[in-house]
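## tool: complex_structure
## caller: assistant
## args:
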Amino acid sequence: MITNDKQNTLIWLGLAISAIVPLILPNHITVLTYIWVMIILALTWDMLGGQTGYTSFGNILFFGVGMYVCAVVQRDMFSSGLDRFERVSEVVVSLNASEYFISLAVGTFSGAIVAVILAVILGSGILGMRGHYFAICTLGLGHAAAEIASGIDYIGAGSGMVAPLYPSELLIGKEVFYYYAFLLVAVATFFLFRKIYRSQFGLALNAIRDNENKAESMGIHTTQYKIAGWTISAFFLAIAGAGVGNVIGFIDPVEIAFSGPTFGVWMIVMAILGGKGTIWGPVLGAVILYSAKETFWTYLLGWDKVALGLLILIVVVYFPKGIIGYFKDRKQLSNSILSQKGDS
Amino acid sequence: MELLNVKSVAKSYGGVIANHDVSLKVPKGKIVGIIGPNGSGKTTLFNSIVGHHPIDSGEIHFNGKEISSLTIPKIARLGMLRTFQQTHIYGKMTCVQNMQISSNIDADWKRVFNPFSKEVDEMVDELLSFVGLYKKRFLLAGDLSFGQQKLLEFAMALMKKPKILLLDEPTAGVNPTLINGLIDRLRQVNEEKGITLLVIEHNMRVIMNLAEHIYCLANGTMLADGKPEEIQNDQRVIDAYLGN
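## result:
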């Protein structure tokens, strides 16, 4: 078993490498940035989907909300002028460096807060539902949000929005800045979630996964825990969304912000691939899936989606509990054999 | 003084009357038994008491408080816990984790993100030893045998330091050797920790030995109640349940 100290050493080693990677592979920096994004997406999905066993297809909602709220704050915080309402999708706001970073910080935080409020309200409504009913209920969330966003002129309606330009006078380029920003958020998310999963709160989430009726009969307010878990996820997911909007530079309601078929599905697949309900599973799943996706896209263009589908199929058939889950099971099995031997 | 006082409780599912005008009293510190044929409404009564479903009519007082409209977690927090006929444990968690999560958590949202305290861990060790599962503490609860799971569930209930424990057939599916140990432990818990017990049991030897007062349900109504020897000799009970 890997001890905590060893694990931390490995983490710091990995982070040290990650910190210098942009210098070694400057051409791959966007891909590497997206790996951190994917880690955040998978980790946040797993809080409810893995630890609590509540499959949500609607987490993309918080991602998109974070993206939109941040973009609006960035657009409106330092500039005014009502004429932009005519063709919002074409408005490109130019900000100087300090304006850019202040509005980015305020926007990101506002997006996270709005997502949290949404998670509390939605969660109170639908997290009282059990298991599959909840899953079905979340199916339409992303789609509905995309439809609503497509109808609001203030945020560019169906044509979307443009994120402000990254200030050109800076020494650090946009790619490098967002690489380190996402690295920071992903690492913070990881450590915070690890702390949560090792706490009373984390065990309560697991108890809900294993036997919600029992948890309730033992006095645990299960709905409150589920809402709290979803809220924490929403917070970090919105931060990721805010950043991704800026990385891409253009926000489309259907294709980017509330894109169920891409980000929305990936976050689920990555968590399951790596091993849901574990802290390392989503991280591993994100790295593997996104690397595979990029590799397939580079070398098997045209067949890349088929190859990706095949990979997912293989994992689901041979490692239904994901990669980490597979090794955990083996360890548990040997533990129980050892203990039975000890008994006799 | 009665810790639990059930007054004329009725509950029906559609046209099926599961409980009709059922009353019982459980004095503080005592062990009270409920017997009755299959389908006589024993488990329904338990479910009504712990707030699993709303009752159609009647009153349930626990520690002087009317609880029939409270939710399960609220009632559990007042100090009334139940175990299930089929074991309800957290299968993918270790025995220790099962016990930890059964302690009193989440009173304060700030502390909920801390690990469990030393006191909790000590109590876990003590209670797992008490039920004889200390050696198995790091196994997944789902890998334990049925009997061991029953013991674990019992120990989990004790983590909460309940005032009253409602046990639904604690010895069903448990092998005879374990049953004797279980009876001893139930008594011990009652005498040393002062926990009142209300026990549904089909095993006559067990319930007659254990309980000081027994209620007999049949067809959803209270057929008789009394001391174990009175119940054993009650003609109605014999006809309905004990047979010849």
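## assistant note: The beta strands of chain B are 2-13, 16-27, 31-35, 57-62, 65-66, 80-82, 164-168, 196-200, 213-218, 221-226. The CA atoms of residues 100 and 180 of chain B lie 27 Å apart. Handing back to user.
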